[in-house]
Write a structure and sequence with these properties.
The complex is a heterodimer of chains A (295) and B (273). By secondary structure, chain A is mostly helical. Chain A is 73% helix and 3% strand. Chain A has 13 helices and 4 strands. The radius of gyration of chain A is 19 Å and the shape is globular. Chain B has one domain: 3-Layer(aba) Sandwich (Rossmann fold). Chain B contains 9 helices and 10 strands. In chain B, the strands form 2 sheets. A 6-stranded mixed sheet of chain B has the order 6-7-8-3-9-10, with helices on both faces. Chain B has a 4-stranded antiparallel sheet with strand order 2-1-4-5, with helices on one face. In chain B, a hairpin with a 2-residue loop joins strand 4 and strand 5. The relative contact order of chain B is 0.20. The chains are: A mainly alpha (295), B alpha/beta (273). At the A-B interface, helix 7, helix 8 and helix 9 of A face helix 2 and helix 3 of B.
Chain lengths: 295, 273
């Protein structure tokens, strides 16, 4: 398989992981957050730090990144999730901006705006992961494991609790659901697993800087979830695949000047989201509007 | 202890006898004492003192705006009272969050039902049955299967078996009302506060509702119900508390309350307490 396609495949998996984990919050808990890229970044920076200073072992790096992102999100989520929906969006925006500032200014840890280069290759039990195919399998494996973890959790009792809170918070409270804890656990799960995408990303590019973890990325991942289908199991992966391939597909359109592809891409994202909201608010994989609204 | 406020004394004709109102809490599920709540200038409930007895159905009756739903909201922790105490089985509920009150055994339904609309009927009931808010429930697969069986039994009892897999949002009005009841049946609550559970039910559904409620009370559940339809109140109530303008102005057996011309006048309009 060509390196070009494998490269796209790795990015689909990375964004797939981000979309899957964001969907836990947006789709199942009904919590809209704009800070997902921040936890992607935390995962990547912690992975880089551990790989360059302690051990390039994939397992150790994964554990360190997931735990750090999960615990940080707990610390942030505990106070933030006590406010109501629309205020939480504002707080999450503030968290995102704050993290980007830290990423760009904490030079000893993040390398500042220039970022960090020469991140070592990941080591697994049988050796070093180095070829594009190996990286693709790593990314695919991570995405598969996360799909299974999230699938098990959201289809079980915790998923029901999450959806109950999403559908009607006061009724969930009245039935004895500890809504604050449920939301906090969901945030920790979502952020912790989002860090896995950061680990794969840092190892794969061997270079990271703050540009990859800005608000734009948060919005892009949110678009993937909404277009694919919020609250569905595979919708986020479909959304991630479509939006990751879009820029590549556009480069094949002969009459588009390559320099304009970036802005055309933004217009298409916007257009796609508007059309989805009107004609298929459940997303590509989600229920069609007529079925959802039947009385 | 007297039920009702000083201003309403001339209206109270049916306050319970001193023998019944001993300070002993045996037979009392919920004891409300001097409970008040105001919103800005509006005194929603005022100095309410009321006992809900164990294992019977108590109806809260009164005109719109009498404070019935506010009383429910205050008991269940959705609203914090300004003054007063609420004790369930001897333990104070004031200041606790709604979910803790629910877990202590006091649960409610809502007038607007508040179902989990994008979840299946079965999941609505299961969600109510699962007590913990962690990633997993205790006791593994066996308990899980037991919960599913219990859910099926509850759905059968409420006539919703055929709709088990349907989204709650796709149910008819009467089915939604029964799902709201099925949800509370799935909990371990010992005191149910039901906000207009029978309003808008057709006669056959109403029969089913009445049977359900009687069965539950026989199993030891205490019920407090807000209801407007006097026929329904007469048929199901063991006791009635009459509220007007945020006060309990009478409490007692249905025959006595419903025969009081002054209360009836307040209820149907034209009179003021």
């Amino acid at each position: 398989m060509s390196v070009y396609l494998l490269n796209i495949g790795v990015f689909i998996c990375i964004y797939g992981i981000l979309a899957l984990t964001l969907n836990v919050l947006i789709g199942y808990a009904g919590v809209f957050t704009l800070a997902h890229a921040a936890f992607f970044g935390i995962g990547a920076y912690v992975a880089t730090f551990v790989a360059m200073n302690f051990s390039a072992s994939l397992v150790i790096v994964l554990i360190a990144s997931v735990l750090t992102a999960g615990i940080l999100s707990l610390i942030i989520a505990l106070p933030a999730l006590r406010v109501r929906d629309e205020y939480f969006v504002v707080i999450s925006l503030a968290i995102q901006i704050l993290c980007v500032t830290v990423f760009s200014e904490w030079r000893s840890f993040t390398g500042g705006l220039g970022g960090i280069v020469n991140i070592p290759l990941p080591e697994l039990f049988f050796g070093t992961i180095s070829t594009p195919m190996e990286f693709f399998l790593l990314a695919l494996g991570c995405m598969a494991v996360i799909t299974v973890i999230i699938g098990l959790i959201v289809r079980g009792s915790f998923g029901r609790s999450l959806m109950a809170v999403r559908d009607n918070e006061s009724a969930a409270l009245a039935l004895g659901k500890n809504v604050a804890r449920i939301k906090t656990l969901a945030a920790a799960l979502s952020s912790g697993l989002a860090a896995v995408a950061g680990v794969v990303y840092a190892y794969y590019l061997s270079f990271i800087n703050v540009q990859s973890f800005t608000l734009d990325t948060s919005v892009l991942v949110m678009a993937m979830v909404i277009i694919g289908g919020t609250g569905t199991m595979f919708g986020p992966i479909v959304g991630a695949a479509l939006l990751t391939m879009l820029p590549n597909a556009l480069s094949y359109v002969p009459f588009l000047p390559p320099t304009e592809i970036g802005s055309i891409q933004q217009i298409l994202y916007g257009l796609a989201m508007i059309l989805m909201m009107i004609f298929r608010p459940g997303g590509i994989v989600g229920r069609s509007r007529s079925k959802r609204d039947e009385k | 202890m007297r039920y009702g406020s000083k201003e309403a004394e001339n209206v109270v004709t049916t306050a319970i006898s001193p023998a019944q109102a001993s300070s002993d809490t045996a037979g009392i599920a919920l004891r409300i004492s001097n409970l008040s709540k105001s919103f800005g200038g509006l005194q929603a409930i005022q100095d309410i003192t009321l006992d809900l007895h164990t294992g019977i159905i108590t109806s809260l009756v009164g005109p719109n705006g009498a404070g019935k739903t506010t009383l429910f909201n205050t008991i269940t922790g959705h609203i914090k009272p300004d003054t007063g105490t609420v004790q369930f089985e001897g333990r104070s509920l004031v200041g606790l969050p709604p979910w803790k009150i629910a877990r202590m055994g006091v649960m409610r339904t809502f007038q607007d039902l508040r179902l989990f609309m994008h979840m299946s009927v079965e999941d609505n009931v299961l969600a109510a049955m699962e007590p913990r808010s962690w990633f997993w429930q205790p006791a593994g697969r066996q308990a899980n299967n037991a919960r599913r069986e219990r859910t099926a039994a509850i759905l059968k009892e409420t006539g919703l078996s055929a709709k088990s897999g349907s989204l709650a949002g796709s149910l008819s009005y009467a089915e939604r009302k029964f799902l709201s009841l099925a949800r509370i049946m799935a909990t371990d609550a010992r005191l149910w506060l039901l906000d207009e559970p029978a309003a808008g039910l057709d006669p056959p559904s109403y029969e089913l509702f009445q049977d359900l409620l009687r069965n539950q009370v026989q199993r030891g559940i205490s019920v407090c119900i807000i209801e407007h339809n006097l026929d329904i109140i007469t048929a199901i109530s063991d006791r009635i508390a009459f509220l007007d303008q945020g006060r309990v102005i009478a409490e007692g057996e249905p025959s006595k309350i419903l025969e009081d011309p002054k209360l009836i006048e307040i209820y149907f309009g034209g009179g003021q307490a």
